[in-house]
Each structure stands twice: as structure tokens, then as C-alpha cells.
Design brief:
Blueprint lengths: L5 H10 L7 H13 L2 H17 L1 E2 L6 E2 L13 E8 L2 H10 L4 E5 L17 H10 L4 E4 L5 H13 L6 E4 L15 H9 L4 H6 L2
Parallel strand pairs: 3-4, 3-5, 5-6
Antiparallel strand pairs: 1-2
Helix pairs in contact: 1-2
Bound molecules: zinc ion.
The site of zinc ion has 8 residues, from loops.
InterPro entries: DNA_Rcmb_RecR (IPR000093), Rcmb_RecR (IPR023627), Rcmb_RecR_Znf (IPR015967), TOPRIM_dom (IPR006171), TOPRIM_RecR (IPR034137)
Function: May play a role in DNA repair. It seems to be involved in an RecBC-independent recombinational process of DNA repair. It may act with RecF and RecO.
GO biological process, one term: DNA repair
């Protein structure tokens, strides 16, 4: 791609660094910004810069926040004895959208993945272990992705808590709502059978 302006080229290169954005899409976005009134593009740039500069990570759960402690952790109507452990901030948003969970979260910032060079020390596991003892957490619900890395992380943290009296659960794994049995892989189908639910509890969720 050749450019008649180095300023344009630089902006396209910056946009193309974003995940899922190729050079062509980056060019389309930059050309769109050029067409906008200057003050709107300025506001766009200022919003990004301010977000990056001022955003904080909650000192308790490591979720993004405008304050030292996020609005979930500081909400007194939530049950602080139940902590849902998730991989990233997007998972918090997904679970919050269900409006089915009234406990707190802990954002690990990833999962243990030796192949990608991610070990326990790069995650917020120590902070979680400290918090469990400090806040008298009674139940940890693991809501990690059902894959080897997720399971490794779950086993690692569970092992660390072997001596600690705490209930450790994971979200159910099985057939997705709207899915079809014949297309499910054997592992998923097997787990669905293992994690079967009494019909009464299933109906009461509706
Ligand atoms: Zn928090």
C-alpha cells in the first residue's frame, strides 16, 4: 500500500495494530475520520488518551474501574463470600449481562499456558489467594474457558487451596442452548451427562 501522505500512513499503521483490523480496514477507518469535523476526531482521540491514562484496575478484583475499588466490589448488596474467577474483563461483562450472579469477581488476566510463556506469576493468583483468606470467601466459582489451559489454571489454584476450607465449583459444561446433540463432540456430550441437572432446578431458572 503506497501513501501520498506520511501522516496518513502513520495513522493507518496505528489502526492496523488493533486486533482484527487489516490494512484495508485501517485505511477505511482513517479516511472516515478525515471526513469528520476536526473537533469530533479530536474528541475521539482525547477519549482514547484519557481512558488509557486514567483507567484503573480494581485493587480487589483486578477488573477495570474508574476508582480504586470497582463499583461491583463496593456494592454492599453483593455477596462477597462468593467469588467468580474469570480469565478477563470481557468475561465479567458477559456474566454481568446474565443478571444471574450476585457475588464478586476475580479477574486472573489470562490462564496458565506454558506454551505461550504464561506462568502463575504473570496472573493475579497470589492476589486471589490473599483475598480468599482476608475476605473470608466461602465459595470460588471457576468460569474459565473449557480447554486445557483453563483446566490447568483451575487445578493449580485448587491445589493451592487444598488446606483451606472453601467450596470450589466450576460453571456447568455441556450442550449449548439451541445446540443439537448429534453435532456435539463426545467430550461435551459426556460432560453434559456427568453434569446433568434435576429438571425441577432447570425449570425454576426459566
Ligand atoms: Zn473490584
Amino acid at each position: 500500500m503506497s501513501f501520498s501522505s506520511s501522516l496518513l500512513e502513520q495513522a493507518v499503521n496505528e489502526f492496523a495494530k488493533l486486533p482484527g483490523i487489516g490494512k484495508k480496514t485501517a485505511l477505511r477507518l482513517v479516511l472516515h475520520l478525515i471526513k469528520q469535523p476536526a473537533e469530533e476526531t479530536q474528541f475521539f482521540a482525547d477519549t482514547l488518551a484519557r481512558m488509557r491514562k486514567e483507567i484503573k484496575f480494581c485493587t480487589k478484583c483486578c477488573n477495570v474501574s474508574d476508582t480504586e475499588v470497582c463499583n461491583i466490589c463496593s456494592n454492599i448488596s453483593r455477596k462477597k463470600q462468593i467469588v467468580c474467577v474469570v480469565e478477563n474483563i470481557r468475561d465479567v461483562i458477559a456474566i454481568e449481562s446474565t443478571q444471574q450472579f450476585n457475588g464478586l469477581y476475580h479477574v486472573l488476566g489470562g490462564v496458565i499456558s506454558p506454551l505461550d510463556g504464561v506462568g502463575p506469576d504473570q496472573l493475579t493468583i497470589e492476589a486471589l489467594l490473599h483475598r480468599i483468606k482476608e475476605d473470608e470467601v466461602e465459595e470460588l466459582i471457576f468460569a474459565l474457558n473449557p480447554n486445557i489451559q483453563g483446566d490447568t489454571t483451575l487445578f493449580y489454584i485448587s491445589k493451592k487451596l487444598k488446606e483451606h476450607p472453601i467450596k470450589i465449583t466450576t460453571i456447568a459444561r455441556g450442550i449449548a442452548f439451541g445446540g443439537e446433540l448429534e453435532y456435539a463432540d463426545e467430550l461435551t456430550l459426556a460432560r453434559s451427562l456427568q453434569n446433568r441437572q434435576p429438571v425441577a432446578s432447570y425449570v425454576s431458572m426459566k
